[in-house]
Design a protein that fits this description.
About 55% of the residues lie in helices and about 10% in strands. By secondary structure, the protein is α+β, with helices and mostly antiparallel strands. Among the domains are: about 150 residues, Rossmann fold (3-Layer(aba) Sandwich), CATH 3.40.50; about 90 residues, Sandwich (Immunoglobulin-like). The strands form 6 sheets. A 5-stranded mixed beta sheet has the order 6-5-7-11-10. Strands 13, 14, 16, 17 and 18 form a 5-stranded antiparallel beta sheet that branches. The longest helix has about 30 residues. It is elongated, with a radius of gyration of 32 Å. The mean pLDDT is about 90. It is found in: Cell membrane. Belongs to the STT3 family. Its EC number is 2.4.99.21. Its cofactor is Mn(2+); Mg(2+).
Length: about 850
């Protein structure tokens, strides 16, 4: 009877816990869909941006060619194209969901709606594995608290699971957490059953649970790898944990069979499921499914086999148990030395990969938000990002790590060591790259739940739980039990924990979830304009293209052309404008330098926008394209952020940052302001000066301007007027500006030697704004100007520009004034017009 009552009591507690966790699921979901009204536009477009846009583009291609997906994409990083390093699983999950709900034929609206809500569901689902991890880390109370905390966790975990953040990051977090959970459960059950090789030989009934959990761990590891190619990071975590646990078990004269069996099965299942997706022709790469993923799985299995054999051999020889960890360390050193001799490329990858994750980035990569350190901003130590991502939970988790280490020393439970090792490595990861904050959020929630549960036990809640199990047999008895056993001190402890642990996270989560990080409206306006008003590049947006052979180029049609902009906007240019960006958020096409100012400044977006003259900028465009007779871009898109805040990132990628900003004394003290080198840059010439004076670049469209005071444009113009004698009008202009690179019409004529000859025109934009375009030259008896604007309007099949001169060009010198009209064919073909 007591056993039955105990089982019923546990079932009742499990049910109550799961009810609370289910409520946490709906809380998490409701937070993530708060901005839903702002993401669905009246024209049916959903405001996806950057990587989410790219995923939705791949889902669209996948559904059009189902089940074949895209692996090589020639529509980005023009004229090279890019291989897809995203895992295929996330896109297939969305596609299959759309096929099921859409009864095999989902429309664009349904697909976009499913894509928009997909990350919110995955993010909310994480409350369940977090609950079970917490439950097995300590108890149900820990699991429930951890589940509640992860449901209200702010920062990157929240942002990357918000509506329309349709990126693989939230799936990474879900599958990696499930991987750890099932590996933990397999290990717990294997240790409980005292799993051994002999039991495998006799197919003992006790094998069922640990083997099922080990297989599920392998399935989740495969799912994680097929979501993110860098998933072997978690394989490394498991192997490091296993090495420590093997050493502890060996020194304490305990069997290690349970670890070896679970580890080998997990990695074997994971490998078998990933194997069909490996591209063996890609060499050894962490960025694609390559030999690296095969070798890392085989290495993990070999490590488990080796650690088990060393354990048995040292026991057989009756050597000092402390030799075990020493043998493992010596083996690692010898293996690395041997690998360096046999396969230097693999050796350097093994050495470089952890360094890339755990090391603070420098140069251009330090300007990429997600790969910069969480503890450093602008080279200075800060905790602001820590607070943004975890609130008080981060500091509580550090305390809980020491509490957990003490518990491991006393109880020696492998599952606790697994969580500690996992947490410590992810802490190192966020030190190197703050992108791992959405992973570390799970650790923070778990350890904060562990801390809170420990505190509650210290003030007597464990005794109350025990009494509850013994004395409460019906719901009617609960009020009397609570009034008798729960004191003011217990309630005060809960209140303090809520104030300390939960409230800061919830407050930040509610603040951060007001808006979704969708595509900028100014960019949407400009990209839709580009899609409708520029020539078709002649490549099918939904077709799957074969990658070119190694050393070969993709065969682009003659009609193809690139669009130069900063890498942040590459996916938007491709997915919305359906044009071919030269640079993209894979950090492809940026150019510049990698490690030293002494390197060659490779052609790309950074050298183009920082070029100190039009001629040098054009040389960059020509250098990007392998055909010496072609330039890589026909259009250039700039926004005010590129001209102000993001400009420093462009210089950082070239590793030549001096002189763009200078210190000046003001009434408020010394301030850094744009310098002469900045105003000579191509980006400033385009965006701040509207391309005034440029010979082959013309403004063809601009978006509406941002609200007054929203940008720094007028401030930059004011600095130019004050420091360099300019007369720029102190007004904001279009947030986004689209320029076209053209041959330019050459106007020639005669004028007296020594005369200053000026050509000018008034240009009116589609926003009703006017500015003056002009060039000047000293005549040597003749003059020549190359101009980019047509005075007679667009022609069919070419750019349907809506920025145009208000009349003919005016040429003036001395008392002479002449009018010159220029046709669009003159501009496009580089014709010469004699005056």
């Amino acid at each position: 009877m007591n056993n039955v009552r105990s089982l019923l009591g546990k079932a009742k507690e499990d049910l109550m816990s799961l009810v609370i966790v289910s409520v946490a699921f709906f809380v998490a979901l409701s937070i993530r869909i708060r901005p839903a009204d702002s993401v669905f536009l009246p024209n049916g477009f959903v405001r996806f941006s950057n990587d989410p846009l790219y995923h939705m583009r791949m889902v669209e291609v996948l559904l059009h060619n189902y089940p074949q997906g895209m692996f090589y994409n020639p529509l980005t990083n023009y004229p090279q194209g890019s291989f897809i390093h995203f895992g295929p699983l996330f896109d297939h999950m969305i596609a299959i969901t759309a096929l099921v709900i859409g009864l095999g034929n989902p429309g664009t609206g349904l697909l976009n709606t499913i894509g928009a809500y997909f990350p919110t569901v995955l993010g909310a689902l994480l409350v369940f594995p977090v609950y079970f991890l917490g439950k097995h880390l300590k108890d149900r109370k820990t699991g429930v608290i951890a589940a509640i905390l992860i449901s209200i966790t702010p920062g990157q975990f929240l942002n990357r699971s918000m509506i329309i953040f349709t990126d693989h990051h939230v799936a990474e977090t879900l599958f990696s957490t499930l991987f750890i959970l099932f590996f933990m459960l397999a290990m717990i059950q294997a240790k409980k059953a005292n799993l051994s090789v002999k039991m495998l030989e006799h197919m003992d009934k006790q094998l069922a649970k640990p083997l099922v959990y080990a297989i599920l761990a392998g399935v989740m590891y495969a799912a994680y790898q097929l979501t993110w190619a860098g998933a072997p990071l978690f394989g490394m975590i498991i192997v490091i944990f296993a090495a420590i646990q093997y050493s502890i078990d060996h020194v304490n004269n305990r069997s290690t069979d349970y670890l070896g069996i679970v580890g080998i099965i997990t990695f074997l299942v994971g490998l078998l499921l990933v194997l069909p997706f490996i591209h063996f022709d890609m060499g050894v790469s962490i960025y694609y499914y390559s030999w690296f993923h095969l070798l890392s799985a085989l290495a993990a299995m070999a490590a488990f086999v080796y650690m088990s054999l060393v354990h048995k051999e040292i026991n057989r020889r009756k050597l000092n148990p402390l030799y075990y960890p020493l043998v493992l360390m010596v083996t690692i050193i010898v293996a690395l030395i041997a690998l360096r001799i046999v396969s230097p490329s693999v050796y350097y990858m093994i050495i470089a990969t952890p360094a890339a994750i755990f090391k603070v980035q420098t140069g251009g990569f330090s300007t990429v938000g997600e790969v910069s350190s969480i503890f450093y901003r602008g080279g200075s130590f800060t905790l602001s990002s820590v607070w943004y991502n975890f609130a008080m939970g981060f500091f509580i988790s550090i305390i809980a790590m020491f509490m957990l280490a003490y518990s491991i020393r006393k109880e020696k439970r492998p599952e606790q060591l697994l969580v500690l090792v996992w947490t410590f490595i992810m802490l190192l990861a966020i030190y190197g790259q703050n992108r791992f904050a959405y992973y570390y959020a799970i650790n923070v929630a778990l350890l904060s739940g562990y801390f809170a549960a420990k505190v509650l036990d210290m003030v007597g809640w464990r005794k109350i739980e025990t009494a509850y199990h013994e004395k409460v047999h019906s719901v009617g008895e609960l009020p009397h039990f609570l009034s008798k056993n729960v004191k003011a001190g217990h309630l005060l402890t809960i209140f303090i924990l809520l104030l300390l642990v939960a409230y800061p996270s919830y407050s930040l989560a509610m603040e951060q979830s007001q808006y979704a990080s969708g595509a900028n409206g100014y960019w949407l306006e400009s990209l839709f304009w580009m899609r409708d008003n520029t020539p078709d590049p002649g490549i099918d947006f939904l077709q799957i293209y074969e990658a070119p052979e190694s050393g070969e180029r993709f065969g682009y049609p003659d009609s193809a052309y690139g669009v130069m902009s900063w890498w942040d906007y590459g996916h938007e240019i491709e997915a919305i404008a359906r044009r071919l960006p030269n640079a993209n958020p894979f950090q492809a096409g940026i150019g510049g330098r990698s490690a030293s100012i002494d390197e060659e400044n490779r052609p790309g977006a950074a050298p183009f926008f920082t070029a100190p003259s039009e001629e040098e900028a054009t040389a960059v465009l020509e250098a990007i394209h392998p055909d010496p007779d072609k330039a890589a871009a026909r259009y250039i898109i700039s926004d005010v952020e590129m001209a102000t805040g993001k400009f420093y990132a462009m210089t950082a990628w070239t590793m030549d940052t001096e002189g763009y900003y200078v210190s000046v004394q003001t009434d408020s003290g010394a301030q850094y302001v744009p310098g002469e080198r900045y105003y000579n840059s191509m980006e400033a010439r385009l965006h701040i000066f509207d391309g005034d004076g440029l010979q082959q670049y013309r403004l063809v469209h601009e978006s509406p301007e941002a609200p007054t005071g929203y940008t720094s444009e007028t401030g930059y113009k004011n600095v130019y007027n004050v420091l360099y004698g300019g007369n720029l009008e102190l007004t904001d202009t279009g947030y986004v500006k689209v320029f076209e690179y053209v041959e330019g019409a050459t106007i020639t004529g005669n004028a007296p030697t020594g005369e200053t000859v000026t050509i000018s025109n008034t240009i009116e934009t589609n926003q009703g704004r006017s500015f003056t375009y002009s060039q000047s030259a000293i005549s040597d008896g003749a003059y020549s100007f190359t101009v980019p604007y047509s005075t007679e309007g667009p022609i069919p099949g070419e750019t349907q520009f809506d920025v145009r001169p208000t009349g003919p060009y005016t040429i003036s010198y001395g008392n002479t004034t002449q009018q010159v009209s220029v046709s669009e064919p003159d501009v496009l073909n580089g014709n010469v017009i004699e005056v």
